[in-house]
């Protein structure tokens, strides 16, 4: 029997009205809840209502080395490679694994041992490159993972993958997931803040896109807020010329009234998010200038971070600001340091890159520890993948380059429930394949969420009929890393 078009239209219209009215009711309820929290000046408000179990860390500082540092020249000591200089990488090691287009056409794959010495540090005896002596001195406070691996072989998909759990753009980043799930710890600062540091290595650096700290399909209030080193620390933070603060407050009140009217009629969660963002921006007019004003920091504290700490935008300056954010209970703090993509002239450029980050990284960890903040702050250092043992381009005793290598790379963790002076996993003599205890990117993110009291399988957001999560459909907590 052919459906009657009029009856079908009436039926569809009734469903539309039903769902529309339902959405409006939910929107009004959500808005009322939001406005109640704002009026009371409360924090929290995450979808998980505090998490699934007691947390060991309550905030994260991720020091992201964009471009992929060479594990062979920093933390993964391979002394037997010295006798392999300029010999071809055996096919029994390579095993036909995927190569990038930058080296796939090379006639041979000559092995380039690291030219840098590795000294032993701390009671744990961890060997660390001479390029990172201050970080090495912190070895007893760190947990090194030599066996992280990823599914992506090029920078943008690899960075997107480790940050969002997918190589395809459009998913929420880790900081956004935590903001959404656990809420805020500070009513006057965003729960997710991002800084991009200057660098002195290779100037042709991989571009960074805002989706790396984006909220994806989550409400936009959970995206990262970028802190700038020039001009206003956050765009449009200052009152426009001729506009008094009282005038701005009155304008925001009127605008909130209009947005509430829109929310009453439509129930779009983004309208509620917009109200929250305007209110946060108003509070940030006081909180952010106070945050970035480091003139009250004692000189002995600044000395921990090195001579560039007072130069705005440097990695040292960003690390000091990260500690100040941690003090103010920003939930997720991310510093991007670019320039690690060393396909050629690696010895020269990696020296400068390590000089940028060595002292400030160690200084940040020491500063957090001295203030009692390291116990509940998780610090992460690392990039999106590793580098090859074989040389890209011409090889000499003094110079070499390395291509992308996704099958194993090194990161380290500190604080927040992490086992100290610990080394997890092993790679083969060529740092090419994992021989013990692999850690997939999803395993890493599952472990990070676990430390913050979140079950990675239960932090879910339904969108367009599908349940999404940071670790997609797999991932295991690496309990061997935990105290």
Describe the structure.
- Strand 3 and strand 4 (126-129) form a beta hairpin.
- The strands form six sheets. Strands 2, 5, 7, 8, 9, 10, 13, 14 and 17 form a nine-stranded mixed beta sheet that branches.
- The protein has one domain: Alkaline Phosphatase, subunit A, CATH 3.40.720.10.
- It has 483 residues and is of the alpha/beta class.
- Residues 1-42 have low confidence and may be disordered.
- It is built from eleven helices and 19 strands.
- The radius of gyration is 25 Å and the shape is globular.
Based on CA atoms alone, the radius of gyration comes out at 25 Å
Derived from helix and strand composition plus strand pairing, the structural class reads alpha/beta
Q: Regions with pLDDT < 50 over 5+ consecutive residues?
A: 1-42
For the largest beta-sheet, the strand count, sense and barrel status come to: 9 strands, mixed
Number of helices: 11
Distance between the termini: 68 Å
Under CATH, the homologous superfamily reads Alkaline Phosphatase, subunit A
Could you say how many structural domains there are in total? 1
Q: Indicate the multimeric state.
A: single chain
